[in-house]
Amino acid sequence: MTTGANREDAAPPEQARATTDIRAFARGGSLAVAGLAFGALLQFLVVVVITRGLDTGSAGTLLETIAFFTILSSAGTLGADIGVVRDIPLLVATGRAGDVRRLLAVAGYPVAVVGILVAVVSFVAANPLSDALFDPSHSHDGATFIRIVAPALPLAALTTVALAATRGLGTMVPYVAVQNLVVPAVRVALVVAAVGADLAGARIAVAWTLPVAAGALAAFVALRRLVLRVERSAFSPSGESSSRISAARFWGFAAPRGVASIFEITVLMLDVLLVGALRSTREAAVYAAASRLVIFGGFLLFAVSRPLAPLFSELLARGDNHAAGALYHIATWWGMVVAWPLYITCAIFAVPVMTVFGSGYSAGSTALVILSLAYLFDLGTGNMNVLLLMSGKSSWNLANSALALVLNVGLNIVLIPRMGIEGAAIAWAVSVVAYNLAAVFEIRVLLGLGPLNSVYTIIVGATVISYGVFGAAARLLFGNSTRGLVVASTLGTVLYGMLLWRWREVLRLRDLAAAIRPSPRRA
Q1: Is 70 exceeded by the pLDDT of residue 21?
Q2: Which of 61, 151, 239, 448 is found 20 to 30 A from 291 (Cα to Cα)?
C-alpha cells in the first residue's frame, strides 16, 4: 500500500480517493476522539473523587446509582437518536428542511413521554428498587439516590436525541462540547466542591445530577440555532411541507436499533448492579472503579464510529468493499496504537493502578487484569458492528447484541455469587469476545473482510515488546509497584515512539497528521 505524501500526486484516482476517505475519517475522528479523551478523563476524575471522598459502601451506592441512571437514560432514547441522524440529512438534501421540526416532534415526544413515565416509576418505586439493587445496610441511601437522579432521566434522554440531531445537521461541535466538555466539567467542579465541603452522600448525588440540566439547556439551544439556520437556507420554509413525516416509518427504522443499543449499554453497565445485588455494595464500588478505568476503549470505539459510519455507508453503497475494508483496517490500527499500551500496562501493574481510587481498591486488581485483556481483544477487532449496520444487516447486529446480553446476564448470575467481582469480569469478557467473534465471522461471510494482516502483527509486536516485555521486566525488578509502573511506562513509551516512527508509513500516520494539522484551507 503506497502512502507517502510525496507520492500522492502521482497516485491513481482510486488511491487518491482512498487517501481522501482516510483523511476525512481522521478529521472527523480527531475531534470526536479529542473530545472523548477529555470527557473520559473528567469522568474518571469524578469516580476517583467519589471513591476517595466517600467510604467504600457509600461510594458503591452512588456508583451503582450512576449505572442505574446510565442504563435507563440510554434506553430512554428508544433509538430516536439513531433515527434523526439518518433522516435529517435526507430531509435537508431533498429540500425539505421545513420538515425537520416535524421529524424532531415525531422523535422527541415519545422519548419525553416514556422518560417521564420511567422517572415517575423510578421515584415512586425507589424503595423496592433499592432493596433489589443494594445490600440491606445501604438500601436506604440507595432509595434516596434513586429519587435524586430519577427526575433527570427524561432530560438526559432528550439531550442525547437533541445532540444526535445536531450531528444530523452536519456538525460534531455541539455533541463534543456538551457531552465531553460542559456536562463532565460542571460535574467535576460540583462533585469536588461537595466532597471538599464534606457533604453527605445524598448531596454529592445532587452535585452529580445537576449538570444534566445544564447539558440539556445547551443541547436544546444549539439545536434550535441549527434548525433556524437550515430553515433560512432551505428551499421550503418552516411550516411548509412537501409530504407528511411518517411516524411508523421513522420508528420502524429507529426502534430495532434502539433495542440493540439498550442491549449494548446493559452489557456495559449491568454487571455493577448485579455485583451489588448478588454480593455487596462495597464490592460493587471496587468493581465499578476497575470497569471505569478500562472503559476508555469502549468510548474510543464509540467515538471512532461517528465519522466512520457515513464513510462506510458511501463506500459500500458504491460497491467499493475493498476501500471500506482498507478504512476499517486503518481505523482499527489507530485505535490499537492509542489504547493497547494502556491495557497492557493495566494488566501488568493492576495493583498500583487500582490504588489510584484508594487503599481499599487493590482488591479489584485481578478483575482489572481480566477486563484489560478483554478490551485488548475488543479493540483488536475494531468497529465490526458499524460495518454490519452500514451493510444493511441491523438484524445481525441486534442478534449479536442479544447474544452478548444473554451470556453476560447468565454468567453473572452464575459466577458472581461464587467468585465475586472476578466472576463479573469473566462474564463481561466472555460476552464481549462472543459478540466480536460473531461480528468477525459475519463480516468475513458478507464482505470477505477480517481484522488480521501484516500491519496488525506489527502493532501487536510493537506494543507487546514496548509495554509487555519492558513491563514484565520492570515488575520482576521492582515488583507490582508504582516504581515499576513508572519505569516500565517511561522506557516503554520511548521505545514505542521509535517503533511507530519506524513504521509511520505503513500505519498511515502521515495521513493522520495531515488531516489534523491546522491549515488555512480548513480554517
Answers
A1: no
A2: 151
* Residue 5: all three cell numbers together: 505524501
CA 309 to centroid of chain Cα atoms: 15
Per-residue confidence (pLDDT) for residue 119, from 0 to 100: 96
Q: Is residue 262 part of a domain?
A: no
Q: What range defines the domain where residue 175 resides?
A: 54-245
Distance CA 52, CA 62 (A): 13
Joined together, the cell numbers standing for residue 283 give 464490592
- Asked, for residue 380, whether it belongs to a domain, the answer is no
pLDDT at 361 over 50: yes
Instruction: Say if CB 148 and CB 203 are below 8 A apart.
Output: no
Report how far residue 397's alpha carbon sits from residue 20's, in angstroms, rounded to the nearest whole number. 28
Q: Is 306 within a domain?
A: no
The average pLDDT across 367-386 equals: 88
Taking the CA atoms of the chain, what radius of gyration do you get in angstroms? 23
Q: How confident is the model at residue 384 (pLDDT cuts 50, 70, 90)?
A: confident
Listed in sequence order, the residues at least 6 apart from 212 whose beta carbon sits closer than 8 Å to its beta carbon are 152, 155, 156, 159, 183
Whether the predicted pLDDT of 470 surpasses 60: yes
Number of domains into which the chain is organized: 1
Residue 275's closest CA among 63, 90, 42, 72?
A: 63
pLDDT for position 517: 47
Residue with the bigger pLDDT between 336 and 147: it is 147
Query: How many whole angstroms separate alpha carbon 507 and alpha carbon 459?
Result: 9
C-alpha cell at 428: 463481561
Q: Does residue 343 carry a pLDDT above 80?
A: yes
Q: Has residue 364 got a pLDDT over 70?
A: yes
**Percent of all residues in the chain with a pLDDT value above 90, rounded to a whole number:** 35
DSSP one-letter code for 468: I
Distance CA(480)–CA(353), nearest Å, equals 10
The answer to whether residue 181 sits within a structural domain is: yes
Taking alpha carbons only, the member of 258, 260, 244, 256 closest to residue 106 is 244
Q: Which has the closest alpha carbon to 230: 81, 83, 100? A: 100
In angstroms, what CA-CA distances link 405 with 69, 264, 296, 300, 402? 18, 7, 20, 21, 5
What is the Cα–Cα distance from 506 to 516, expressed in whole angstroms? Answer: 18
Question: What is the distance between the alpha carbons of residues 494 and 466, in angstroms, rounded to a whole number?
Answer: 8
User: Nearest-CA neighbor of 89 among 381, 286, 310, 349?
Assistant: 310
Pick 11 or 466 by higher pLDDT: 466
Going by the DSSP 8-state scheme, the letter that residue 180 receives in this structure is I
- Distance in angstroms (rounded) separating the CA atoms of residues 57 and 238: 54
CA distance 115 to 150: 9
pLDDT given at position 12: 41
What is the phi/psi pair of residue 448, to 5°? Answer: 70, 25
Pair 347, 372: CB distance under 8 Å: yes
Do 453 and 329 form a contact (C-beta atoms < 8 A)? yes
